[in-house]
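Subject: Sanity check before I submit

Could someone independently write out the structure tokens for this chain? I want to compare against mine line by line before I put it in a report. The sequence has 285 residues.
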Amino acid sequence: MNGFGFEFAASSPCPPSAERAAEVRQLFAEEARSGRPDLATLCLLVGASADGGLDDAGIDSAQVELDRLAGQVPFRPGAPLAWAEALRQLLGVRFEFRGSAGDYQRLESSLLHAVLRRRRGLPILLSVVWMEVARRAGAPVYGVGLPGRFVVGFGAGTSGCWPIPSTGAGSVRGDAETLVGATLRPSMLEPANPLDVVVRVLNNIRAWAAARPEQSEVALWAVELALLLPSHPARLRYERAQLLVQRGISSPGRPSWMPMPRSWVPWMNLLRIGCGGRLLRLGRC
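---
Independent answer below. Compare away.
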């Protein structure tokens, strides 16, 4: 048992029951479609989709941990660079939140509650920790989705700074340009909204699962959560249909939380071609 009040295995977490998974999807859909979706809540619900040990009390405990960390940030340290340094000292130095290449091999590195426990994670999840702690402390903070990177922004314009949470290093604009290997245009530094961040988190999970055919269940729930977002690419529905076939499920089985798309039947008919009208595993017609 850890400080958040739930068990978490050293290996990949055990998935939730079907009933709990449906409940989590409903909560995720409601939060994603609310007027002001909360980033921490959405990320914790992603974690609950992966980890059956993360119940509502565990989610509340993770939120309390973010509050506790925010309470240790010095009171209004000043300019954007001072805010960035205060967060670096607290999270990067004192609590040693950071990442490494090995974190890309672990599903837990994309789950906020696990990152809070392990203090290790992918850059975007470390950025979520920085943003949520800084926001609670009153900082002028936002996320920035750079090409192939995600960093945290404090302030704006020439006075802004963009720390790199995965290393704990402070960054000014020139350093961020070196990081992405390109000149940063103002449009590239626009704040990312919470749903943009969640899309990136889910994309990382889907990429992790895609490299591991035995993890098709993880790929499926990540796609299904992405389909609950107000805006998503149409190809996700085809990807879901493929995963259902791979898992031997003979029907799309539209759940109550997912609206029926008009394009569903043509996609499923494509999967039936050459299979004698039967839905079989891909490549086994």
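---
OP: Matches mine. For the report I'm noting this point. The two ends are 47 Å apart (CA to CA).
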